Amino acid sequence: MTSSARSPNSTVARNVAIGLGAAIILGLIAGFVIFGMNQGRFDPSIPPAPSAKPQDLAEAQRQDLEYLRQLPKLDRSFTAETEKAFADRIDLALKDAGSMSPVRFELEVSAAVALANNLETEVIPPDRRRRLHRLPIRFVPFSEGLYVTKATAAFGDLLGARLLAIGGISMEDAITRFDAHHAGPDWARRYLARDLLEAPEALQAVGLSAQSDAAMMTFLMPSGTTETRRLNALPGTLDNQTDYLPWMDLIPGISPGRDDENWLDLMANPDRLPVTENSVSEPVSFARLEKPNAILVGINPNDLSDKDLRARLDAVLVGLREMTPHHLVLNLRRAGAVRAGGDAEAYASFIDALPQALPNGAVFILTGAGTGGLGVELIARLQKAMGERILTLGLPPGQMRRHWAAASHRLILPNSQIAISFSTTLRDFENGCTQWSACGFAASRNSVAVGPFNMDVTFVLRMADYAEGKDSGIEVIKALIGQPD
Fold first, then answer.
1. Are 123 and 109 in contact (CB under 8 A)?
2. CA atoms within 13 A on the CB side of 182
């Protein structure tokens, strides 16, 4: 006869198994809930576009503006005040629906979006560059003014000329006409305005040109004479696959136009190119500097993934160990956004290893308007770990130390197809951020607070240095440590 009674051990095992199973189920449920909250907060779903096909331009622009009105529901960088200003701007634009040219409409959209006053909440610049016709020159802001660094063959004599006026309006006043279309600090807006200053359609929209296909520009020529020239727009727009970015205007051999356009460079001899502009196609570039005894490291390009960032920072450590310099010069002028929100572990492992890889000397960091979230976080973490060994030089980063970082999705207006980046994740290296609901799990666990950002040395790139194949930042560093040429 068999007994149905269970042994004490089997009962305990059964209860443990039930408990473990329940814990696993509860953990999975909690994980799904947290994942859903995380997705909804930091990467929300894009609202459906209107299904009705517009009958005319007025209806198409109204549809786009009403769709755009939903941006503050996605973008967390808006305050109550800026959200109201945004809604008021949309209301005003709706009154002009149907009477706006595509470029004027795009400027109205960018002005509304810029009211968030967050650098990563924006009309996507590369997309806009591909929509607009361009002038046959490119120019770069230096301390002495805006200088032509690239031109088509027909305008090769303008290389090295300083732009004085557009349509009879001084450059200072001309640039301010685009201030409302960019967010961020003044120096960043001035840097970003080049996208529109090189597009005659945009110049016409703000009253700087009487025509949409040409502009009258006044130059101080290299010979010292002043000339006013009519520049016609190039016949085609940029190819959709182009990835030309404004910082490339300094670099010879990279064409800002189509393959059938013959572009010339101010620095025709690459051997004269400043060392900061070499090897820009490499993920990480290295250059040995004898004065000072340092290596220059550049991290390229923008929009790195977490995996790419970790690999680049590891490469910097390898370079330091192999070259054994006394100082490190870190060029972060092009260190833009990390779309995935950063990789705290990658930063931590790099910063933990850096003092051993660079036991003495300083870390000089070159910054500028193109220094975005990647650069801002790296600088903050380095300053927290290494204190006075970190020196920042140049213009302050275009991104603020406390800012909202962009989500991976874009809001695309249904008719104009204007793409807008919206921001959902707080990055605060001034005060720190320990709330996952604002900063995300990884950032809140690895919060860093280093106070307001202050430049150690402020300067603007000099055209005179560039023309001699020098970088103004390297020249400043030489002077600081007493090693001039």
1. yes
2. 24
pLDDT digits (tens, 9 = 90+) for 55-84: 999 999 999 999 999 999 999 999 999 999
- 30 burial class (0-12, 13-18, 19+ CB within 10 angstroms)? exposed
Q: Which amino acid is at 172?
A: E
Task: Quote the strand ranges of 378-443, DSSP E.
Answer: 390-394, 402-412, 419-428
What is the residue-wise DSSP string for 288-301?
A: EETTTTEEEEEE--
User: What pLDDT does residue 14 have?
Assistant: 63
Kindly report, residue by residue over 255-302, the tens digit of the pLDDT.
888 777 899 999 888 778 888 887 666 778 888 998 889 999 988 755
Say what the pTM is: 0.87
Distance CA 106, CA 391 (A): 40
Beta strand pairing call for 327-331 and 294-299: parallel
Q: Where are the alpha helices (DSSP H) in 193-267?
A: 194-197, 200-205
Peptide bond into 54 cis (omega under 30): no
